[in-house]
Amino acid sequence: MAKGYWIAHVDIRDPERYKDYVSTARPAFEKYGAKFLARGGACEAVEGKGRARNVIIEFPSFQAAKDCYESPDYQAAKAIRITVADGEITLMEGAE
């Protein structure tokens, strides 16, 4: 079975409140087997609009990635995130 991924591109407007998002999202990530492959390190946008923070999260399957995003735990975190950051999240199935 192919793994699933979240690919997120984020500009944080309120770093202190963003910490609340991170702590609120943690239980959902733990529950659905998230593994952070890249998170906030150095990056360079070579095409298109870049964002300051980029994150790649691996899940055991695409379904697990989707279930995590749709879970009540993550939706509570999302409610915080959208008030303190701008960005995009794409769910993606990995190559087998």
How do the strands and helices of this protein lay out in sequence?
Layout: E1 4-12, H1 15-31, E2 35-39, E3 53-59, H2 62-70, H3 72-84, E4 85-93
Number of strands: 4
Query: What series of H and E elements makes up the topology?
Result: EHEEHHE
Largest sheet: 4 strands, antiparallel
Portion in helices? 40-55%
The gross shape turns out to be: globular
Low-pLDDT ranges: none
CATH class: Alpha Beta
CATH level 3 topology: Alpha-Beta Plaits
- Strand arrangement across the biggest beta sheet: 2-3-1-4
User: Gyration radius, to the nearest Å?
Assistant: 13 Å
Oligomer: single chain
Q: Please count the helical segments.
A: 3
CATH architecture: 2-Layer Sandwich
Q: What class, by secondary structure content?
A: alpha+beta
Describe the fold and architecture.
- It is a single chain.
- With 96 residues, this protein is of the alpha+beta class.
- The chain is 41% helix and 31% strand.
- The protein has one domain (4-93): Alpha-Beta Plaits (2-Layer Sandwich), CATH 3.30.70.
- It has helices spanning 15-31, 62-70, 72-84; strands at 4-12, 35-39, 53-59, 85-93.
- The protein has a 4-stranded antiparallel β-sheet.
- The longest helix has 17 residues, at 15-31.
- It starts with a strand and ends with a strand.
Task: Please tag this protein with its features.
single chain; 96 residues; Alpha-Beta Plaits; alpha+beta; four-stranded antiparallel sheet
Give a summary of the structure in a few sentences.
By secondary structure, the protein is of the alpha+beta class. Helices cover 41% and strands 31% of the residues.
